[in-house]
């Protein structure tokens, strides 16, 4: 039996893992503030489903996915849950400088049996990861995200970012300093938000 998450069929195993992850986040949040207290009652739609929709856009087969500023595991852990059944050989690296959040991410990966490595480092201090996919959610402006991503992304790779109602202003600002190919997609969970799929990133003028 399949379930539908973010407009996409997922296996019962994937659905159960997503629910288990949501339960873990709720359990740990009072201790280390993984998500805002006000969003805890809405964790499924606001965080799990919002993250899950990003799995519409990676290449059909990828080897290495890097999630930067992973925080409470959105979208990094959610993406690894999807890949567990759909691309089981894929590796995930989650970069998170906060030691307590890193501990949570390691615990979640262990409990859910995910192919996840957690780096407890600043993004700009981590070794280049040579990733096929880089993702981020609620982390920084697009210009800053591009700067963070090029260090870890293969030249052939794709960056996947959630962006809110200021997405157009951030795109315009980023285009002053960066050259990139962009595809925008509407968000399944927020009519004002966009999902950005970005490739061929380089400094403007290079």
Description of the structure:
The mean pLDDT is about 90. This protein has a single domain (about 1-205), classed as Vaccinia Virus protein VP39 (Rossmann fold, 3-Layer(aba) Sandwich). The protein has about 210 residues and is an alpha/beta fold. β4 (about 90-95), α4 (about 100-110) and β5 form a beta-alpha-beta unit. About 40% of the residues are buried. The chain contains 6 helices and 9 strands, in the order ββααβαβαββαβαββ. It has helices at about 10-30, 45-50, 75-85, 100-110, 140-150, 165-175; strands spanning about 1-5, 10, 65-70, 90-95, 115-120, 130-135, 155-165, 180-185, 195-205. It is about 35% helix and about 30% strand. The N and C termini lie far apart (about 50 Å). The strands form 2 sheets. The protein has a 7-stranded mixed sheet, with helices on both faces. It has a two-stranded antiparallel ribbon with strand order 1-2.
Strand order of the largest sheet: 5-4-3-6-7-9-8
What is the straight-line distance between the termini? 50 Å
**What's the quaternary structure here?**
single chain
The number of distinct structural domains comes to 1
**CATH superfamily, called what?**
Vaccinia Virus protein VP39
CATH architectural grouping: 3-Layer(aba) Sandwich
Mean pLDDT: 92
> Pairing-aware structural class of the strands and helices?
alpha/beta
CATH topology (fold) name = Rossmann fold
- DSSP helix fraction: 25-40%
Largest sheet: 7 strands, mixed
Q: Which outline best applies?
A: globular
What is the CATH first-level class name? Alpha Beta
The total count of helices amounts to 6
Number of strands: 9
The H/E string reads EEHHEHEHEEHEHEE
Cα radius of gyration in angstroms: 16 Å
Unreliable runs: none
Q: Name the beta content range.
A: 25-35%
